[in-house]
Specification:
This protein is about 35% helix and about 15% strand. The protein is of the alpha/beta class. The protein has one domain (about 5-175). A four-stranded parallel sheet has the order 2-1-3-4.
């Protein structure tokens, strides 16, 4: 039985970014992407029924919210699903402090997020990212280094969670 990866991402910006990393850039393992914020929303029965015994659920989320109560409840539910063999495993990809910070840190030619799409203001980033069809050229233009992505550990209440980046990196892109 093959392992199936499902990426659960916070929103449309992460959906676009993860889509490019696994698709056109082939940096992370292939898998389905679903929008679900594990930090802010309790796992519903609908999502839990979608788990399978060969699935690894990868939750991608920002660490700047300061709230872990719902995340802790969700972890308890994930552990139950693992024990019941309804889920093979789950991982976290911690964005410190958020996707924008990760991009600035991992792109050597990017110092302000508004410059990612040559915009006039930071607030344009999310809608432009959500509408982007391809990020490879944009990331390369900004000197993207995958080895610098998702390597920081949060120093707030999210510090207790392990970052699962190494488990989703394609073997030919090992860091």
């Amino acid at each position: 039985m093959n392992t199936r990866i499902v990426y659960y991402v916070e929103g449309e910006t992460e959906e676009t970014f993860i889509g490019s990393l696994k698709g056109e850039m082939s940096l992370i393992l292939p898998g389905r992407i679903r929008v679900f914020n594990v930090v802010n929303k309790p796992l519903s029965n609908f999502i839990r029924r979608g788990f399978s015994q060969n699935e690894i659920a990868v939750f991608v989320f920002d660490t700047d919210t300061g709230k872990i109560e719902i995340l802790e409840q969700n972890i308890s539910m994930l552990e139950i699903e693992k024990k019941r063999k309804k889920l093979k495993d789950y991982l976290f990809i911690l964005q410190v402090p958020n996707l924008e910070g990760e991009l600035i840190r991992s792109c050597s030619k990017l110092s302000k997020i508004k410059d990612f799409f040559s915009s006039n203001k930071d607030s344009d980033f999310k809608p432009m990212m959500a509408q982007a069809k391809s990020l490879k050229v944009t990331l390369e233009r900004h000197g993207f280094d995958f080895g610098k992505l998702w390597i920081f550990s949060p120093t707030n209440e999210f510090a207790r969670y392990k970052n699962g980046k190494k488990q989703i990196v394609r073997k030919n892109n090992a860091i």
